[in-house]
Amino acid sequence: MTEQKPPRRGQPPRPAAPRGPRPGGPGPGARPRPRTTAPARPSTAPALRLMQPRPRLRLVTVLLTLVLVVFSVRLFQVQVVDAAAYAAKADLNRYQPVEIAAKRGDITDRFGVPLATSVDADDITADPYLFTPQQAKTDSAPQQAAALLAPIIGGDERTIAQQLSTPKSRYVVLARRQLPQVWNRIKVLKSSLADQAAKHGAPGLLNGVLSEPTSKRVYPNGDLAAGVLGFVNGQQQGAGGLEAGLNGELAGRPGKMTYAQSGSQMIPSAGIQEQSAVPGANVELTIDRDIQWAAQSAISQQVRQSGADRGYVVVQDSRTGQILAMADAPGFDPNDIGRADPAALGNPALQDAYEPGSVSKLMSMSAVLDEGVATPWTHVVVPGTLQRGDRVFHDDVDHGTWDLTLNGVLAKSSNIGTILATGQLGKNQNQANQVLYSYLRKFGIGDPTGLNFPGETPGILAKPQNWSTSQQYTIPFGQGLSVNAVQATSIYSTIANGGVRIQPTLVKGTTGPDGQFTPAPAAKKTRVVGEKTAKTLSEMLESVVGDDQGTGTKAQIDGYRVAGKTGTANRVDPKTGRYHGYTASFMGFAPADAPRVTVSCVIQNPTVGSYFGGQICGPVFKQVMEFALKTLQVPPTGTAGPQIPVDFQSGKQ
């Protein structure tokens, strides 16, 4: 047997010879010989061995289980443990609370004609989040929107842009209480922009601009009775006049609505929670709109012609104490309060304290007659001057000695004669002062009128022990004390009403949300002087107007008997506290034989023409009184007036 050589490097191994018996080899049954092979050379590369599958599956299972446990724990925390907190946060962004403004009650005249009312309006609001670049698809959305909105709502473009650039806020108010036509213009523009944007697959530029229904206070008659009505502020709360004084009744109670919203749109299916607002009560005044117009027209014209600082007219029902008109000039328009002169805001007929002058002599004469110390025919010798203490007193006109009756003292409005007459009220001047003071108080001087009007002055009346040497003699003719115009008007209504003072009233009643009318409390009544005294005083006041020697002849009215009194007083300048200029006035009632209406006119600091009350206030009184008598359909006087002498020599008792 020949030995087989191993193959050379680079040569393939030779194939082995087929097995079988060789010639000459052993025959059948012979034992085969073992085959020898060359030993394999060891390999230098590491062998790759795969892991078992079961451990790998277990690892994946554990990892997935841990992830699921974490998710489950977090889900449990969100849905169970912190569910309420997360729900509240979601509601905060999803649910929008909105206050529902209560409709402010109307203020009407005595016949239900609106003097102040509320109309539908809209607050223009916005959601700044919808103006962010992510939502609006542009970086300049706030500026573009502001440029479009500013001309419509009358706002400042820069301010509006700043409001829309506050993405952390979901609610801003761009303009309050805009009339419906303003929101209609925005809606049209908003719809047009949305249609254009939809073509490009973008949101509308003004999609984030919304409106909330509210109301706006309006005054249909402009400046008519503005001093009485007052005005409201930006929050529609009373800020002056009756709007402020009766704000509790007028304002009502606001409601609240909470609704779900998405993309600045309400989601009706998500439910709405609403607490309805309670509207305010309607207030009916005693004011007569027509008489108010006549009074305001007359005083405005006279103030302009006289170059006066201001003036006011009060019209009162002599029998009931109800105020039929309270006008002042210059006034203001409460619809445009921003342009009003701050000095004109208010009601000077109640808020101005002034020295009344000679119209106050009616109270002095009331005391003299009611105490029985004199009669209309009593002889009063009136010298040209009168010295009391270190002061010399004069009348408005220089004159020699007058021989007058007490009626003549009132008709000629003599200061000296009034001092002499009131000096008879007591054994000495101190006692006389005490008696006079008691009557002034009964007439309501020094006390509020009872109207409860904001800012009303009660006037100034010192106690008699505090009267200066000068005041002891000036107070009887109306200097050294102060009143407001309604107080002064009430003096004359007291005499017209037979000596019974009826507390002035301005509110007739209120009508609540349920439609129920509640009348105002009955006015307080006080007996001031006897009925006979009042009748005598009324006849004496007719002499002031009807007699050719009286100071009030310009107040005469054809067909009617008129009782009245002029006043011309030194005026205290409120800026300096010193006397400067004059206060002119005229007050009276008609018909004198059956009084129905009392009218007062006061003009402060007239600088053009006459400054005497009879000359500039007498015509105003006449104009307003004539209109009031016709409006109230008061028939003309059917009797002749009394003939009480003015001069003592012409009518001795």
From TrEMBL:
Keywords: Membrane, Transmembrane, Transmembrane helix. This is Penicillin-binding protein 2. Pfam families: PBP_dimer (PF03717), Transpeptidase (PF00905). Residues 35-49 have a biased composition (Low complexity). Belongs to the transpeptidase family. Residues 100-260 form the Penicillin-binding protein dimerisation domain. Gene3D superfamilies: 3.30.450.330, DD-peptidase/beta-lactamase superfamily (3.40.710.10), Penicillin-binding protein 2a (Domain 2) (3.90.1310.10). Residues 9-31 have a biased composition (Pro residues). InterPro entries: Beta-lactam/transpept (IPR050515), Beta-lactam/transpept-like (IPR012338), PBP_dimer (IPR005311), PBP_dimer_sf (IPR036138), PCN-bd_Tpept (IPR001460). Residues 311-626 form the Penicillin-binding protein transpeptidase domain. Residues 1-49 are annotated as: Disordered. The chain crosses the membrane at residues 57-76.
